[in-house]
Amino acid sequence: MRLMMSMAGARHGGAEAFFERLAMAFARRDVKIQVAIRRDDDRAERLGAADIQPIQLPYGGPFDFTTRRKLTRAVDAFSPHIFLSFMSRAAKFAPPARPRERLHIARLGGYYAGKYYQACDHLIGNTTDICRHLIEEKFAMERVHYLPNFVDERLATAADRAQYGTPAEAPLVVAMGRLHENKAFDILIEALAEAPGVHLWLAGDGPLASDMKKLCRRKGLEDRVRLLGWIDDPSSLLEAADIVAVPSRREPLGNVVLEAWARRKPVVAAASEGPAQLIEDGSNGLLCAVDDVTGLAAALRRLADDREFAEAIATAGYENYRERFSEASVVDAYLTLFKRLCDDADIDWKGE
Predict the structure, then answer these.
(1) Ordered domains of the chain (ranges, CATH)
(2) Over 90: is that where the pLDDT of 253 sits?
(3) Do 55 and 70 contact (CB within 8 A), yes or no?
(4) Is there a contact between 201 and 174 (Cβ–Cβ < 8 Å)?
(5) Could you report the per-residue pLDDT of 288-309, keeping only the tens digit for each?
(6) So what's the pLDDT on residue 254?
(7) Taking each helix axis from N to C terminus, what angle separates 307-324 and 293-305, rounded to the nearest 10 degrees?
(8) CA distance 144 to 13
């Protein structure tokens, strides 16, 4: 099977990171793959290290007359059975599908307007709720498919707590993401003020970075909170964590939940869209209401004080991850779907 993937995302982000992981996973499964990305030398280097040589294009605005021409030329030369676009801009630049030759499938990780995907043959949502949203956007059920994400499963050495001035015996919470209103890290910092002795490493950058620093000073938490900035590979932070927190107001999936589960870490999350679908409260994680400072603080204290309970929900999360969200199971599901859709469209993907 020949697969072409197209992504016009930013330098950092969950969808962008999953795009890279998925492309590399397909390559490991001997799928013939071509990749087109918005110009990014660092991303190109990471893909190149996995023997994927990406085509770099502008993916610009209305006066970008280069991307479509060059992308169409690359698609015609590669002749993929599946063209898989990530995010609306990549879908916009996609060449038209060709009956009995190739399908255009868009993968969505958020609640985007259906108008951007009208030319797609099929849509993949990474949560069942996103799939519901797409059906509400008037896409036929048979065109909408649920396939979850997987996360980086590579083992890592735990980060040295002393490097960040964190006592070895202190309960340590790790949180990650863009410092944006949707992530609700302000609620997490306020909750920490109600959880004495608990420390926090917050990895991320964004428009609210200075606000987070001011909030820590106002709450007198400079000695217990470390704002680490953006970290490309946070696996060592997760290995060092006692608790992983996902306080988001809006979170379509919650990759951080999966990353914590993959490393047997207990998770506490606000009951936003994605975490509420993943977590069974008290079984494989703890949920609190969105924007509930007191509830989040209580959950942090419970996990910090009851290590046996924390270990039990971490184990349950890991078992859930292995069953539904491992790389092997997700890539199997993608390939099964691609082959079925090609068969249904009378595309001969077995011909070579």
Answers:
(1) 2-150+326-344 (3.40.50.2000), 161-324 (3.40.50.2000)
(2) no
(3) yes
(4) yes
(5) 999 999 999 999 999 999 999 9
(6) 82
(7) 100
(8) 24
Locus of tokens 């217990």:
224
CA distance 187 to 199: 15
The rounded distance, in Å, linking the Cα atoms of 261 and 265 is 6
Q: Per this entry, what is the length of the chain?
A: 352
The alpha-helical segments, DSSP class H, found in the chain are 14-28, 41-49, 67-78, 88-93, 128-136, 185-192, 209-218, 235-240, 255-262, 273-278, 293-305, 307-324, 327-344
- Pairwise CA distance, residues 279 & 259, whole Å: 13
CA distances from 234 to 9, 91, 138, 153 (A): 20, 30, 38, 12
Angle between helices 14-28 and 255-262 (to 10 degrees): 50
Angle at 88 between CA 83 and CA 92, to 5 degrees: 65
Tokens of 138: 């008037």
Sequence letter at residue 166: T
Assess contact for 130 and 144: CB atoms under 8 A. no
**245 Cβ contact list (under 8 Å, min separation 6):** 173, 174, 175, 188, 200, 267, 268, 269, 296, 300
